[in-house]
Design brief:
about 260 residues; alpha/beta; Rossmann fold; 2 domains; seven-stranded mixed β-sheet; 10 helices; 7 strands; about 35% helix; globular
Length: about 260
């Protein structure tokens, strides 16, 4: 029997599925920082020490929590549960999956984010993803975060697209470097959608675009700031831009349904 085609939808998280940075929706405030001050100090730490910006914010989260918040996996899950999502995200995945099934397309959803995996796992939609690729911590036997386990930045995000393409999803599986014939790809790039909001998504957007896939830039419909998506469209990083509205019959839903139709 002919196998159903798989369509992989890959999402950034902050300002793509959620209107703000996940750390700024409760955690930063819990350690007595103003949000702007936290990011300023984190960016200065990175700059002054030739440090990856994501490692810098993870270091800040860990060290500035001392004496204020028990920095554990449970704490991060709890904070993730407070993260707000854009309108319609809570029902988006089931609706898109159902449309795909009715058309003969198997839809899978992936997160590729510089945010924290443990916080995303605490959100109400965590179980909807086939895989969550994001920065994460190593936790000791007591559940306390003691060291970075994974750091995902804008350049190494692309490796996860190759993992999805080849079906080699385990981050430690070296099989991703093996040679594959084009007909062996589990999800060819033409069957991928990448949804993001900013410069950190550009390498993934460009990779998907140039290989026949579909990159979508989203913007906050409340602020109506389209400057980033206009620039990405002008630079041919994205093929489409729409509001970050995941409600039924939204522009984004209509666009993704058309891509599903094209896939089949």
């Amino acid at each position: 029997m002919k196998k159903e085609p798989i369509l992989a939808i890959c999402y950034d998280f902050d300002k793509t599925l959620s209107p703000d940075d996940m750390q700024a929706q409760g955690y930063i405030q819990s350690i007595d920082y103003e949000v702007a001050d936290f990011w300023k100090e984190s960016n200065e730490l990175a700059k002054n020490n030739d440090m990856d910006q994501n490692l810098a914010y993870m270091y800040m989260m860990s060290t500035r929590s001392r004496g204020k918040v028990l920095f554990t996996r449970d704490t991060l899950h709890e904070q993730g549960g407070k993260v707000k999502l854009f309108p319609g995200v809570d029902t988006w995945f089931d609706r898109i999956n159902e449309y795909g099934r009715n058309k003969g397309v198997s839809v899978e959803h992936y997160i590729i984010s510089s945010g924290l995996k443990e916080m995303i796992e605490g959100t109400e939609v965590a179980e909807k993803f086939t895989k969550i690729y994001a920065s994460s911590f190593y936790f000791d036997d007591t559940g306390v975060a003691v060291w970075p386990a994974q750091v995902v930045n804008y350049t190494n995000k692309t490796q996860f697209l190759f993992r999805i393409e080849k079906g080699v999803l385990d981050i430690n599986d070296q099989g991703v470097n093996s040679f594959f014939q084009p007909n062996q790809y589990r999800v060819p790039f033409r069957n991928m959608i990448y949804i993001g909001d900013s410069d950190t998504d550009i390498p993934c957007m460009k990779l998907v675009n140039t290989n026949g896939g579909h990159s979508i830039g989203v913007y906050n419909s409340e602020t109506k700031d389209k400057s980033k998506v206009f620039r990405m469209l002008d630079e041919k990083r994205i093929k489409y831009y729409v509001p970050a509205d995941y409600n039924e019959n939204s522009q984004l839903e209509q666009l993704v349904k058309m891509i599903i139709d094209r896939t089949i």
